[in-house]
Design a protein that fits this description.
Layout lengths: L4 H5 L3 H5 L17 H15 L6 H8 L3 H7 L3 H26 L4 H14 L6 H8 L3 H25 L3 H17 L9 H6 L1 H9 L3
Length: 210
């Protein structure tokens, strides 16, 4: 069990039904495990165990529920993956981008707010495993392309509003996206406090005219 799932997932019916059996009717306790719980749990399983954890059987084992709980919410694994991709997009891209655009301040202030929000909320926690998974799964690849287009559109718009254009605009947009999207791939350890402290320096480098 992990985190909040301990409260809702420990129920005696698990021993009698188990994940190894065919789909069963949802139990009273399983009705508390809604679609968002499934998708949140799947992202955590992905982050901790990698793409191989995202099978119906293994997710059942990881979350401690029966297969009936899965089929109550999702018609198939492909349907589940499509919803998982959309959930990841909304959680780590759309919601944060909207918050940045609604933030009162200049375009540069919005970019700074966005950077702080990404690190403070650990918004790219799932990016590395999802991008690795996208290399071998077309449904996941589609979700990644949608996320990249959405992020590119927002970041490029803000740098353009500052006054950059042409290659200067493209370089800053892609550098910002690459750093904040793939920072976790850097294996040199760095505390969250240090990551946040360096935002201002990085921000000045990207928003200052050359």
């Amino acid at each position: 069990m992990h985190g909040i799932y301990e409260i809702t997932l420990e129920f005696s019916v698990r021993n009698s039904l188990g994940c190894h059996k065919l789909p069963q009717p949802k139990t009273h306790m399983e009705t508390r495990y809604n679609v968002d719980d499934w998708l949140e749990g799947a992202l955590e399983a992905l982050a901790q165990k990698g793409p191989e954890a995202i099978s119906i059987q293994r997710l059942c084992d990881y979350l401690g529920v029966s297969r009936g709980s899965f089929y109550w919410h999702f018609k198939s694994r492909d349907s589940f993956l499509e919803k998982l991709g959309a959930f990841w997009l909304d959680k780590t891209t759309n919601a944060i981008a909207s918050a940045a655009m609604e933030f009162e301040g200049s375009p540069a202030d919005k970019l700074l707010f966005l950077a702080h929000h990404i690190i403070d909320k650990d918004a790219t926690r799932y990016d590395i495993p999802i991008r690795a998974w996208a290399e071998i799964h077309p449904i996941v690849a589609t979700a990644v392309r949608r996320a990249d287009r959405a992020r590119y559109k927002v970041v490029r718009k803000l740098f353009a509003a500052i006054g950059f254009s042409g290659e200067e605009l493209e370089m800053r947009t892609r550098t910002y996206m690459a750093y904040y999207g793939l920072e976790r791939a850097i294996t040199v350890e760095e505390s969250k406090k240090d990551r946040l402290a360096r935002i201002e320096l990085r921000h000045r480098m990207l928003t200052r005219s050359s």
